Amino acid sequence: MTRKRSIEVRKGTGRWAAIFALLLAVAAAHATGLEPGPVSDDPIWTDKPVRIDRKTQAYERLAVEPVMVPLRLHPTTRATAFDSASFADRGRLYVLTDAVPVDPKRFCRDTDGSVAVCGQKARIALKRLVAGKSLTCKEDIRFAGVSFVTCSAGGRDLAETLVASGAASAATPRLVRVQEDAMQRKAGIWMDAECRARGRCPSAGRR
User: Fold this and answer.
1) Residue-wise pLDDT tens digits, 36-88
2) Is residue 23 part of a domain?
3) Kind of pairing, strands 146-153 and 92-96?
């Protein structure tokens, strides 16, 4: 009799232990944000292709960062340079991100009284760099019919080339030293004493 009661006690204890373990599993699932349910034998990872049925499987979709592909431009010889930092080709306007253009109507005056049509010279400098050339560009900003770009031709950065020759001023910190060197050499627009004093050339109508 004592042995039979002992067996029944052990069975009861085992049953309560199983119930307690189940309750712990449910609590742990809730704590980790998992829904309680039957244990699945399906693998959680596989190196084989798996067909996903969107109606029955709710897998998380990870955002994919787009790959930035270099922009290849081939402006025709008829490409239009509006100033020394922007040009149009095939109906789209391209603006050099790192360059501040010179007003095409700008005249530059040196301290000795000599005058140069530096605005037109700067515009022509950009025209020569892009017309009929093969350009490799990075599109920094794009909207409507305008693209702000960083371009190079034959391994030469266009904005840096223009700033170095005094055909534009620096629009970003990376070309500040290039501009300072051009100012010391009085290259291009920097022949003008007012431009050197200001560190930039004001518009032609604001002299």
Assistant:
1) 555 555 555 566 666 666 666 666 666 655 546 788 999 999 999 999 999 99
2) no
3) parallel
Beta bridge partners of 137: 71, 151
User: What range does the domain containing 105 cover?
Assistant: 71-206
C-alpha to C-alpha distance for 53 and 70, rounded to whole angstroms: 36
In a domain, 36, yes or no: no
CA atoms within 13 A on the CB side of 48: 3
What is the residue whose two structure tokens read 């530059």? 108
Which tokens in the block code for residue 205? 């109508």
- CATH label of the domain that carries residue 147: 2.40.50.90
Q: Evaluate whether 201 touches 193 at the Cβ level (below 8 Å).
A: no
Domain count, the chain: 1
Beta bridge partners of 89: 92
Q: Looking at the domain assignment, is residue 29 inside a domain?
A: no
Residue linked to tokens 């960083």: 150
Q: What is the pTM of this model?
A: 0.65
